[in-house]
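From the shared-data thread, chain only:
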Amino acid sequence: MTWCNTPRDRASPLQAETAPRQAQRTPRRKTANIARRRQYVAAYALSMPFMVTFILMVAVPLGYAGYLSLFKKQLIGGISFVGMDNYARALTDPSFLSGVGRMALFLVIQVPVMLGLSLLFALILDSGMLRLQKFIRLGVFLPYAIPSVIATLMWGYLYGKDFGPFAQLAKSLGLPAPDFLAGGNVLFSIMNIVTWGFVGYNMIVMYAALRSIPAELYEAARVDGASEWRVAWSIKIPAIKGALLLTTIFSVIGSFQLFNEPNLLRVIAPAAIGQDYTPNMYAFQLSFVNQDANYAAAIAFLLGIVIMAVSYGVQLTANRKEKAS
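Structure, as tokens:
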């Protein structure tokens, strides 16, 4: 018995051509899906150490500190839940408020000076007009490689009123020895130490951003008769706004976290630097000396909120200026 090929049984030429293509696409899709899954697995595997470290070293301590800040240790009754009382107490604590105000003054004066010097050095190095650029770049960056403890001890010796070289020079000239660690001068002395240590780091960030700008922009501006100052102001600085914003936010965070410099200088200037000179020093004093970890945790959380608010304000202001321009 023979079967006749009806129109339904016959394969059209188009179907005959597309069938092998579909057969080829199916293995390719499977291969692509397998490769994509392998990429996801590799990505998760590579990021897992960071995630575990972040959770154990940052998230868990923050959660525990937040938990501690809601309690209070009393002589009678032991540890009791007080809710937001520690935060309310901190908002009226003159030691905490004076420390935050002092760091705000530090931020307003020191950060613009430091970033201005960093930008100046970066522009000078990027201009290519200096000789021994690598040596100069290393010299500006070198103070950042010195630990803050060693840098503070070094500057503490230089600031010494009785034994420092500035005091010895003034005495040899018959002048009174300058007191860099007096109550009205110590904040500016700390500003000098921090500026000396971090100008190089910020300079490297800005210099790297400048090196990524296409050289054609400079050549076109010079052809139009623009001077080096005009090129720097109109092309270079606007092109590295991202780097400027990044260094500003990092500097804001570092300003409110100031601890090593005033804590070490307090040994030779106890009358000018108290135990509550900065919020971090105050929290350290409360936690490890006064054994009041609950109130210290509230202080630390409020300081974090202040840092986030100021950093967000800086970023919001920069974004508004960029949109306006």
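The chain has a mean pLDDT of 86.
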